[in-house]
Design goal:
Blueprint (H helix, E strand, L loop, with lengths): L13 E3 L1 H7 L2 E6 L9 H14 L8 E5 L3 H13 L2 E7 L4 H9 L3 E5 L10 H12 L6 E3 L6 H9 L1 H8 L6 E4 L5 H13 L4 E7 L4 H7 L29 E5 L1 H15 L5 H17 L4 E6 L13 H5 L7 H5 L8
Helix pairs in contact: 1-11, 2-3, 2-6, 6-8, 7-8, 10-11
Length: about 350
């Protein structure tokens, strides 16, 4: 079954990020994944998982896709499922941005919010979603657990689409690719596609504070330090998407590192992006400096800033955490509100 909205997933453009490029002497390009119909790179993950389940006969007509997600994969699943006549049930931590919950509801998803819990706990949102899928699947195909963290369809779809697009859009003139990891599907999938075509391309991880992958790729141990206001990235385990991945560089990106970059992109380039994009761009600048001037670095602009307006772009929220605030909030702080 074909639906026009599904044709809008993928084939997103590459955008030259002028400020980061000038600062490093490299071409830093961002793949505009926020232009996908569901608003994020996770539309690709959702489409890949849904099409794979259909191809293997694991979902019946009118069945329900169930997933545990910080939000964006759920939005993508709801979008794809709705287009193809399926339902979606999303389990998410109640600590996520309210805008994501609103987007899920607007996309037609049934949403269950749960308290945050470590992955080792049976109360973790992923484990709850798995159990719910099992309860709903009373007949074969009635429900399907998307399992984005370990489902090989995730990585495979990125390898077949995102990575190929980047190669073609750069004409093969790419020296490095870097991304943060939520499931790791985009990082591992793009790495696979690019290394097949150019074995010496540099692949790098950008990990926020609180993520354990930086220590894994630099010290061989999953170890988490600090915390971050980012959402959906900075995992604490080696997911199924990442088990075979080797990276050439890994960077720890603090909130203080990426926030000024995001604010500058808003003020000077008209780009309002989410926290994962900020981590990615900060990492791309680090990679560019390590590789040297004249190189071409590509990263992912995973989603837009509107979903995080009450956090990443909220001066009061940031100031309460001693984090940099948007310069425009300071510029207008002294203005009278009298009319």
């Amino acid at each position: 079954m074909n639906r026009p909205i599904l044709d809008l997933i993928g084939n997103t453009p590459l955008i030259r990020l002028d400020g980061p490029s000038r600062a490093t002497g490299c071409e830093i390009l961002g793949k505009a994944e926020f232009l996908n119909p569901g608003g994020s790179v996770k539309d690709r993950t959702a489409l890949g998982i849904v099409r794979d389940a259909e191809a293997r006969g694991l979902i019946a007509k009118g069945g329900t896709f169930v997933e545990g997600t910080a939000g964006n994969t759920g939005i993508g699943l709801a979008t794809v499922a709705g287009a193809l006549g399926y339902k979606s049930l999303i389990v998410m931590p109640r600590t996520q941005s309210p805008a994501k919950k609103d987007a899920l509801l607007a996309a037609g998803a049934q949403v269950i919010e749960v308290d945050p819990a470590p992955f080792s706990s049976e109360h973790h949102f992923v484990h709850i979603s798995r159990r719910l899928a099992g309860e709903l699947n009373t007949t074969r195909g009635a429900a399907y657990w998307a399992n984005q963290f370990d489902n090989p369809a995730n990585k495979a779809f990125h390898a077949g689409t995102t990575g190929v697009e980047i190669w073609e859009q750069t004409g093969g003139r790419i020296d490095g690719f870097i991304a943060s990891a939520g499931t790791g599907g985009s990082l591992a999938g793009v790495a696979q596609a690019l290394r097949t075509r150019k074995p010496d391309v540099a692949i790098a991880l950008a990990d926020p504070a609180g993520g354990a992958l930086y220590s894994y790729f630099t010290e061989g141990e999953l170890k988490s330090e600090g915390s971050s206001i980012t959402e959906g990235i900075g995992v604490g385990r080696l997911t199924g998407q990442l088990t075979d991945l080797a990276v050439d560089h890994a960077y720890r990106i603090q909130d203080e590192d990426f926030l000024p970059i995001l604010f500058d992109l808003v003020a000077t380039e008209g780009l309002s992006l989410g926290g994962s994009a900020g981590v990615n761009i900060a990492g791309a600048m680090r990679l560019a400096r390590d590789l040297g001037p004249g190189k071409t670095i590509v990263t992912l602009l995973c989603d837009a800033g509107a979903r995080y307006a009450n956090r990443i772009y909220n001066a009061d929220y940031l100031a309460a955490r001693n984090l940099p605030v948007p310069p425009w909030s300071q510029a207008h702080a002294g203005l009278s509100t009298a009319v």
